[in-house]
């Protein structure tokens, strides 16, 4: 008898045994069902969060450096206090970079704050408002869906025009065309010349989806007098990022008159910082989820092992007969391993049938994605649990003496 024949025979016997004890088989799978549901939902949540985060973080741009007063992530209160003492990044730094930066494809100054925005009877409280130049379009990678972006002439002259995000346009302009309309930003009128394409974000909306973008001169004269910018520096090529970062650092140290040997009194931030933090947080979540999943599968595996010991005891005479007519040890071993794995796979299929509608519900409140890879992983984990749980009972059955087994009543 070759291996494939033994495998097929084992499957047939395992299926007959499961059908003969339907209630016991279903009850046995409960622990596995809980464990596999945990695996699946954890996988869908983490997979969805990963994809959503990567899509959202792509808005920051892998080829963009952000020169500003503070770090994005400050580890201690002392560091935060020190950063507050730094001078703001303003016009002098912008002029030097525009003149001397050789590796920058675009340099966009950005001043930001939050103000109420109103159009007619509709209003939105405290939305992001950015003051910038025409260079923001290539530096940020945003796309204009309708209308146009701010022109160089409008930015230099500080004309009262604006570009708004897709979500803000939908919320403020009910059954009206936003283009050409005049809205109020903190009580000041601005004409809408463009609407940005909707981006979406990590949890909900991207910042630009609900934002208003104004000419920088208009922003600093009308809304906020303090000039504290974030300088977005888009590099020509990704392989020039480190060189561009060093060039940017040298120019900023020169214009801000930082003595040699003294630490920078500014920060250069980039996308990698977000990725590093996210991977740290995701790793912690995965470790906790793995522990909970392992615990559930361990409990389910113990249940499978107990039932398999009962099954071996009930079929001792059958094992004796099979061995007496020539069945090998590996045949008996394979039979019970297949039975244990089949019970667990049944539990895995039930778990997936439950996890699928639960995932659809989760998608309403958070990013979640049930991918084929997660389905395959869930079934593999279920089968592996069955094999490990059934190994000891199957080994005991394979080692039985046929004479002693036939004497069993």
Kindly state the number of beta strands.
10
- Average residue-wise pLDDT: 82
Query: Which H/E pattern describes the elements?
Result: HHEHHEEHEHEHEEEHEHEHHHHH
Order of adjacent strands in the largest pleated sheet: 2-3-8-5-7-6
- The Rg value, from CA coordinates, equals 32 Å
User: Regions with pLDDT < 50 over 5+ consecutive residues?
Assistant: none
Give the overall silhouette.
Answer: elongated
| End-to-end distance | 29 Å
**Main beta-sheet strand count, sense and barrel state:** 6 strands, mixed, barrel
- In percent terms, what proportion of residues is strand? 15-25%
Binned, the helix content reads 55-70%
In the residues, how many domains can be counted? 2
Question: What is this structure, in a nutshell?
Answer:
The chain has about 400 residues and is an alpha+beta fold. The protein has 14 helices and 10 strands. Helix content is about 55%, strand content about 15%.
Please, could you describe this protein's structure?
A six-stranded mixed β-barrel has the order 2-3-8-5-7-6. Helix 2 (22-57) packs across helix 12 and helix 12 (329-362) runs antiparallel to helix 13. It is an alpha+beta fold. The model has no long low-confidence stretch (mean pLDDT 82). 57% of the residues lie in helices and 16% in strands. It is elongated and about 100 Å long.
